[in-house]
Amino acid sequence: MSGRVIVVGSVNVDLVVTTGRLPAPGETVIGGRFARHHGGKGGNQAVAAARLGAPTHFIGAVGGDTFGIDARAALEDEGIDVGGLLMLPDEPTGVALILVDADGENSIAVAGGANAVLGSVQVRAAMKRLVLTPADVVLVGHEIRTGATHEALRLGRIAGATTILNPAPATGLGRSTLELADVLTPNDGELTTLSGGHGTPSARAKRLLGTEPGRRAVLVTLGSKGGMLVVGRQARAIHAPRVTAVDTVGAGDTLNGALAAGMAAGLDLADAARRAVVAASLAVTRPGARRGMPTVAELEAALTGQGT
């Protein structure tokens, strides 16, 4: 039985400047190109899941400004149910200022706006409307209040749904919140923050899972190297296909959305993770956080090309 993907997280407008190189502190680099894209980790993850065929619902908040109206419409255009997207007239929509260099690396600063107002009460009301089932996947980010993140995971766990936490940013997340996630999806830096130590990604992931990991897992995103899936005490490297990176913004969001879509479709964690790594690799080949996110057909073609 296939389930739904319920994404709880942020919506931003991305203001992107692409330059030859990222400026050093206090330095001005001229000659860049400007573009505006729809973003926010939550919104991006919802788009990634929807493009891969998952029935997708989004819970979050935007401001009562033009950015917010446009952001809502962009999600609806992707076929996403936005019944849980609040519009707060007295708040601005979140904005991300993004610098991207010639190699596709980026630097990001975010003003949370309405995202910072979303709380556990609003999340509870939105999730009650959805009536979660064990077939559903609840994908939660942390560009919202920690209390809202915790509540979304708690309600998902109570319903028996699969819970995924993308711990970005990783600061401020206590063990009680982390333990509500069936799957944690940190990048390498976030994994270091959460595990409180050094070592290989697998060693840090095992430390994060603790001495009694149960069914919980960690999928560490490692950029062009792919990912590392740690389930219990077992670790498996997932290699990414070689691509020419144009813009790495949104790669992690693509991976999270694709992972949730795969698990909602009934795939086991290992297969869903493998597909998610390939989807993320496709996403970096085009500029913009969402523009490169693959459709089902594009992902299947890439997987066929890998011989899988």
What's the layout of helices and strands?
Elements lengths: L4 E4 L3 E7 L14 E7 L1 H11 L4 E8 L2 H12 L3 E8 L5 E7 L5 E6 L8 H11 L6 E4 L5 H14 L2 E4 L9 H4 L4 E2 L3 H8 L5 H9 L7 E5 L5 E5 L2 E5 L12 H14 L4 H15 L12 H10 L3
Parallel strand pairs: 1-4, 1-8, 2-6, 4-5, 8-9, 9-10, 10-11
Antiparallel strand pairs: 2-3, 6-7, 11-12, 12-13
Our Rg estimate from Cα atoms comes to 18 Å
Number of strands: 13
Q: How many DSSP H or I helices? A: 10
Distance between the termini: 23 Å
Quick check: average pLDDT? 93
Portion in strands: 15-25%
Could you describe the largest sheet, including whether it forms a barrel? 9 strands, mixed
Query: What proportion of the residues is helical, as a percent range?
Result: 25-40%
The low-confidence parts are none
Looking at the structure, what is the overall shape? globular
Structural class: alpha/beta
